[in-house]
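Meet my pick.
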Amino acid sequence: MRDTRLTRPTIDRIVPYSPGKPIEEVQRELGLTDVIKLASNESPLGPSPRALAAMRAAIEDTRLYPDNTSRELTERLAEHWGQPAHRIIVGRGSDEVIHMTGLAFLNPGDEVIYADPPFALYPHTARVMDAAEVPVPLRDYVHDLEAMAAAVTPRTKLIFIANPHNPTGTMVPGAAIEALLDDMPDHVVVAIDEAYYEYVERNDYERALEWVDAGRNVIVYRTFSKIYALAGLRVGYAIAPDHLAPALAQVRPPFNVSSVGQIAAIESLRDPDQVTRGREVNRAGKSYLAREFTRLGLTFPPTDANFIFVDLGRDCRACFDALLRRGVIVRTGDIFDLPTHVRISIGSAEENRILVAAVEEVLREVSPS
């Protein structure tokens, strides 16, 4: 038991992150051999073959510290997005650059606005920095940008917008975010989390880098964990305008991204087919699951990500346990205060078929709420 006389009081507000259940744990606990994990929005395809080859070669040099500033990766990202390199800050997944944003901009008592339910790192960042949380409920599973703008006060410092949103998969058009930005006072930073950026195929989405170029108070997060399938290596980055990027760089820890992670990310960007392959598999899986869930009478918001947030109409924990016994791992909605929902990652064609068959059985087994 920790000694509360020595610790910061604000950490009592922090709820440790609860990850999806690992495959190995389910196999061990239930004696199963065939288990599929559709709980953490991971890629069913795996990394680029170029990245895999580069990782195998890079392993030989892990006795050495990595490039402290991730210089080559930063330059490759700058070229990829048409941005100057000094605007890009690389981190251990986008989680770390979110944490770095808190370190750079939040003081105790500052207010942090985010959609409710949120991605867990947004309230976590506020609590670590002893800032005040201002959750704004979603409207029909989508960010209520008007309500978020109305929640701004002189104490507001940071607004998080996940686009697409996790856990619902919904997105807000670029024009709607620009309208929000037009209403923002100069003391507010808007952080736009685009972890699922590459999966979005709507033509009203992409505007964020325009706002960076225009010098708006905007920070954009992206990651190699999703469509690039490097979740186990933890590589993400922020793109920020000239007046915000130096603060993020100043709080970046030394040697924060492994040498293997850096080279894998570089080679992933060099593979012209990685994003295309991921989008094609996701598009087909999303269409199949939407069709099958509709056939089963289930409701879900349209998703622009690589997961679907489904209302099973039944206690999500009971459904989770029943699916687990069938070797299928999903994410329960009760952690988002939506106790009949589950979040399901879009898997391979075979994984999706197994999932649907299991869900159909569970709907018969578990009584409606």
